[in-house]
Amino acid sequence: MKILSKIKWSAGSCLLLIGCYFLPAVNCNAQDSTEVVKKAYVGGTFVGSMIIDNQSVMVPVAKTTEVAIQHRFGTVNNGYEDMYGIFAPANIRLGGSYTPINNLQIGIGVTKERMQWDGNVKYALGKQQVKGGCPVSVTIFADMAVSTLPKAGNFVSGSDRISYFTQLIIARKITKHFSAQVSPSFSYFNNIAGYVDANGNIQPRMKNGHWAIAFSGRYKVKDGFCIIANYDQPLTQHPTDNPHPNLSLGVEMSTKGHSFQIFFSNYQSIIPQQNNVFNQNDYTKSQYLIGFNITRRWYHSAE
Question: Is 70 domain-assigned?
């Protein structure tokens, strides 16, 4: 019995020694595996959710609430008569959004122009990585707007009130100070105005669908202060009333919870499909205006 107990003890000791020998190796391998899977993403491509008239690629972290005021004065080409557009009829949008989970933002807003209510959703499909992996950040944005003007004299049916906008946003933080993005988009209006030709037939002034592309950039001068710019180019050719491109330039001042942008732009509408399809301000004729965006953010998580 003593011999058997010694044999059992020796076998148990051997297993224990073997386990002790391999356990550190298993832990190291698991740690190495975790480090391989872990990804480091590039942060601060843009400060906030907007770049003047366009959405940025950024989606706030989960549990973030945003409230935004977007204001556009009249065009400056009337000079002192209306104080360079400041006293002219203005357009304004009040909006709010929330990020229920990481990478997904949902929002709602109301705009003075045509008393439009809009709902929107924004989702980050991929993020630029520090080393290897995805070289760009990619986000999709979609918006649906409904005009609440009286039906009489404005619409034939209720569906005529509705318009849509979808945009794919591709961005890259090129250097510590400079970021750029390109954003192809498609706008669609259920109802487009028409005219009666010489033969008495109703002809559409524009197409219902419209393609466009936007280029945006940001240069960080110092912490909390950036130069921002947009260029929006219509691609679809319409029978009449082709929209003009938009050129905008401004500055952005920001803190962790606030963003303030002031700029010159050709776009006076604020809802994106309205701007892309109906803009008739021509920057070559000084038909630009002063605008500003104010955004307040509340973070409800520890991230």
Answer: yes
